[in-house]
Amino acid sequence: MQTLLLNPSDVRENAQMPDVIRAVEEAFGAYQRGDTQMPAKSYIDLPRYNGDFRSMPAYMDAGDWDAAGIKWVNVHTDNVEQYDLPTVLGTMVYSDPRNAFPLGLMDGTTLTRLRTGAAAAVATDHLAIEDATSLGIVGAGVQSYTQLEGIACVRDIEEVVVADVREEAVAAFVERYEDEYDVRGGSIEEAAACDVLSTVTPVEEPIVPRGALGERTHVNAMGADAPGKHEHGDETLLDAKLVIDDYEQCTHSGEINVPWGEGLLGDDDLYGELGEIVTGEKPGREPGDGVTLFDSTGLAIQDVATAHVVYEHADDNDNGYPFELVDTRVR
After folding, report:
1. 287-313 pLDDT per residue, tens
2. Residue 225 in contact with residue 270, Cβ under 8 Å?
3. Which residue among 41, 71, 229, 241 is the active-site one?
4. 120, 33, 32, 30: which is closest to 68 by C-alpha?
């Protein structure tokens, strides 16, 4: 038996966004049904290097298929400036649950971007207004691209407003999509007024004013993934129909972690987890809803689900580079 080595191009080629969205939605459903094992994300903090490592293992049983894996990922905020490397790097080990054989070793950086866009798409599909046509994005980094690609799979997006303090990042985003959408750079307030808003920044002080949001805007708060991060003010979190991906992770390191730790936000302020909506245990958007907000920390089951899509398609298409990682002669 051989292990498939899958580089960024292989991951992208074999993970078409509609397939990833379906797999990630199945992951949320399996999680809600109790058909997953997902130990808490563990951190190695490296203040000396202004970064950290995170390990994210998971197993999920989706019914027709099951999968296991672990992602080793980091956030090093100085990488771009000092090393010409992405802020987030990742490696995914995808294993056969039957015998633990490592089926695939793949680029976890591209995989993370894809599954993050897919998670926003699942939330948007259940929580945004049906006729949403405009998307605002705050933060024009690499995650912004899959936000648009994912959300455009579930809503007929026509207009896109992207806001970022880095003019060159906005220009690059606009250039990439100007032939497909009515896309332009704008202020945070202009982005927040759209039907759907995705925020993908690492800030620790809220940057999106409550008054800038549209009356029925759906917000995907994707940026907070560590304690202290906080993109949206307390007023927004208290006003919104608030949906989280995981209670433990969100209260520890999600968008709600700061007001939660200060006692300003509690259990009664949470509508529920996305898995409850996916399985039909709770309704998504309802006629009287105003602002809705999805707090996404990113779950290891999303990585495993996406890795499953990548590996199965790559195996079928003879993509990737087979190599002997394990000496199967040893018993």
Report:
1. 999 999 999 999 999 999 999 999 999
2. no
3. 71
4. 30
If you average pLDDT over every residue of the chain, what do you get?
Answer: 96
DSSP 63: S
Examine domains 3-111+300-323 and 128-295 and report if their fold is the same: no
What φ, ψ does residue 159 adopt, rounded to 5°?
-110, 135
Distance, CA of 229 to CA of 97 (rounded, Å): 35
Model pTM?
A: 0.94
The class level of CATH for 128-295 reads: alpha beta
| DSSP label of 130 | T
Task: Name residue, tokens 């980094």.
Answer: 141
- How many other C-beta atoms lie within 10 A of the C-beta of residue 37? 14
Nearest to 96 by CA among 72, 67, 61, 70: 67
Residue 241 designated active-site: no
Distance of CA 246 to CAs 4, 5, 49, 112, 249, Å? 31, 31, 29, 17, 6
CA distance 180 to 167: 21
- Residue 158 identity: E
Under CATH, which architecture does the 3-111+300-323 domain have? 2-Layer Sandwich (3.30)
